[in-house]
Design a protein that fits this description.
Blueprint lengths: L2 H19 L11 E8 L9 E9 L2 E9 L6 E2 L1 E4 L38 E2 L6 E7 L16 E5 L16 E6 L1 E2 L1
Antiparallel strand pairs: 1-2, 1-9, 1-10, 2-3, 3-7, 4-6, 5-8, 8-9
Length: about 180
């Protein structure tokens, strides 16, 4: 065996160990991260709703950012984190909104609202909604009551009215993803 390869082996193993230890971190930030890849449900047809969302831990909260495509142009849609990490039955298996503190349904950031509330998605003329929001009601910390890893992210067909209990009357679930640690 080449002596140079043998000498470099401890360095390679050390680097591999460091990379493995960072498996729950977002690339480049050194902070925990998660992702969700939204896929269409069969709640409506045709349905081309897809998207990619990243969750990046902040000092206090989580940055939720991404893009959802395939929405009808110039429309608004309810967008929520749901309690169960199951997108079966057209997203209905995801249960209700994630609500570890027992709040009432309302507008994102409103006093006493669910932790699972997110700002509504607003599609542009091309049917694309882009967003980035710093959410201080959720976390990516294992064991924390407001941890969203393993829960579902859901796009609804209709706009959220921010009033109707317990979910805002935002209609069927047209896209769903399980939030997974990255």
């Amino acid at each position: 065996m080449n002596p140079l390869r043998i000498a470099a082996l401890p360095l390679v193993l050390a680097c591999a160990g460091l990379l493995s230890a960072c498996g729950g971190m977002s690339m480049g930030s050194g902070r925990p991260g998660a992702t969700a890849s939204l896929v269409p449900t069969q709640a409506m047809t045709p349905n081309a709703t897809v998207g990619n969302v990243t969750f990046t831990a902040l000092e206090h909260g989580v940055r939720v950012a991404g893009e959802v495509r395939g929405l009808p142009p110039n429309t608004e849609h309810g967008f929520h984190i749901h309690e169960k990490g199951d997108c079966g039955d057209n997203g209905n298996a995801s249960g209700g909104h994630f609500n570890p503190s027992g709040g009432t349904h309302g507008k994102y950031g409103g006093a006493g609202s669910h932790a699972g509330e997110l700002p509504s998605l607003v599609a542009d003329a091309g049917g694309v909604a882009r967003f980035s929001v710093d959410d201080h009601a959720i976390s990516l910390t294992a064991g924390a009551p407001n941890n969203v890893i393993g829960r579902a992210l859901v796009v609804h067909r209709d706009r959220d009215d921010f009033t109707t209990q317990p979910a805002g009357n935002s209609g069927p679930r047209i896209a769903c993803a399980v939030i997974t640690k990255s």
